[in-house]
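User: My collaborator sent over this chain with a note saying "see what the structure looks like." That's all I know about it. Can you take a look?
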Amino acid sequence: MDKSTFEDPKVVISGPMYGSLRHDSAHKHVTGTAEYIDDTPEPAGLLHGALGLSDRAHAEILSIDLSEVAAYPGVVWVFTGKDVPGVNDVSSNGSHDEPLLAETLVQFHGQPIFAVIAETREAARRAAWLAKIAYRDLPHWSDIDGALANGSPLVTTPMTLQRGEPETEMPNAPMRLKGQMRIGGQEHFYLEGHIAVAFPGEDDEVTVWSSTQHPSEIQHIVGHVLDIPSNAVTVNVRRMGGGFGGKETQGSQFAALAALAAKKLGRAIKFRPDRDEDMSATGKRHDFLVDYEVGFDADGRIHAVDATYAARCGFSSDLSGPVTDRALFHADSSYFYPHVHLQSKPLKTHTVSNTAFRGFGGPQGMLGAERFIEEIAYALGKDPLDIRKLNFYGQPGSGRTLTPYHQEVEDNIIARVVDELEETAEYRARRNAIIAFNRDSRYIRKGIALTPVKFGISFTMTAFNQAGALVHIYQDGSIHLNHGGTEMGQGLYTKVAQVLADSFQIDISRVKITATTTAKVPNTSATAASSGSDLNGMAAYDAARQIKERLVAFAAEKWDVAPSDVVFLPNRVRVGEFEIPFRDFIKQAYFARVQLSAAGFYKTPKIHWDRKAGRGTPFYYFAYGAACTEVSIDTLTGEYLIDRTDILHDVGRSLNPAIDMGQVEGAFVQGLGWLTTEELWWDDKGRLRTHAPSTYKIPLASDRPKIFNVRLAEWSENIEATIGRSKAVGEPPFMLAISVLEALSMAVASVADYKVCPRLDAPATPERVLMAVERMKRV
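Assistant: Without extra context I'll predict from the sequence alone. Here is the result:
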């Protein structure tokens, strides 16, 4: 089939940075030819693994009888935690609180207790159901309320942020209010679930193909479980069918089980849980309960904030520490709090351990801040947008630039972004028209909201802000690229390849993008925290710089010109007064014994963080954005439609506008799902009942706004020296969907003539909207 069939003539196919290049695998995605792990040819002798899961939420294991499991036709091996040669633990932070296979205690319904290896996947799964396990049930709680009522321990040390004197300024505020907000969790619901295939090698060696955002962590954990050094473990990742943070730590269990069985049996092993098992046994976005008190004046200016952020973390710590930390980092949203006290409560619950999800706690913190603004607006009878603008961070020198964690906001463009969107979306006129419509409409009510985004970019663990890249130029002028970032559909591989194409001024088709592997670039950080392009792009740039310096020195000596007279032009090199094709130039450099390979490295500058003191500069810069959404609700049923959304988002100087636009649109829709349709529910036995598409509702194509206008702030350029002066785009636009919840809130508030804040919790399902409408009728 002709490749041109899938090419949009308006999309650039070759070129350097800043061009709207097609995603390198786009044509494969739409034709189904992109290979994921389960698509690759199965090797001879491949065996399949399945999990044996607990059917208790919290219990002692009294006995395990696996005789019928082992006797099932096709079963080759059944193993438990006692068969682990190294450490029976897959915790990501060294806390040793997350066993690979539970041995004496289960702490959530669906926790893996044993694994089955069989000739077929069906045989392994059917055999796993035949286990006979005796338990002694223990008290359990699966939600935040239960954890608080039972004095649940914390899974990790909480964090406190404080600035100013909130304890004395809160009582002195002209006006005060208290409230509580519940914020639901979210299932990652990837197109490709968790999967791992392990191949035994010589001696202690093992190779693992894993759907993971963090190959180096898989490498380390497999090494610990097998009691072998990291140099014996190779982890490969070509692409994932979605990651969203859920494959930062949660893939370790499947990779370790596959590797253990592969080394034991000397055969390739594949673990691929089905959707129900995947959703039951792997973590999700954290639920939050925010208790807050806000002091403000008659104009709506905030004086003091005191808030506690309790989170359902699950049975182990996983990433709950940094997730709840980031919730506090973003509890200011875009607003300056003169006096502030914020505290996290990472609560232990008898549920699967929650983990990273796009935004990493930031959305929950930001949503709480927008509730503060909404509460003030309804208390004063004002437009929430006016309260937002009044409380925005100021420019340097204004005295309103210091965050609760004592970092100065030096790159603030939120006012400009919001003002521009307010004008282009015609917010004021539409709001007035909606108020008039609601006055005359009996059953259908409308709402509109314009909300901002300010999101900090960097890992809050300073050490993670580093990356490596390996670049080879071959004799024919083609380039081989490898780096530590992983491709989960977000276009990272394409963007980093653009960096190299730009550096050498060659067509991007001359750059071969290769699978991420721990065998080429070691000690990599997870592709997370929206930092993939920032870190790996700069590492690739550093490698290109090294090679170019050698090439320039070679050309200057060979042709007796000044280094400044050696210039890289599109697919050629100018040396003095003549030009030579890039391919021929490289060939001559090879014969002159110029090293045409380099390992690049980058570490983010300027950042530091003292968690104990609650002070530092955890973020290199901030990304900004704003969204204006209009909705219609049916007050008889609680059902609603999203009529229109306008977005203006800041990605700095975009490396690839087409890919960045896709990220903004996709993030908004995913955020929309979190705040409206996606609801996690556990029953009184601690069983997750929303564990499949039949019971868990992600957004459909029909749920997107009927009118969807998305623009990038083309005038923006990062003040920091990022790659190409670009900004991160993965997580920040997720929070644009907060405008949907705020618009629904206005529509509900109209039932009571906007006299009180509806206090609409998330997710705002039609049931919750209807209940809120009924509350408003009683006001």
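A starting point for your reply to your collaborator: The radius of gyration is 27 Å.
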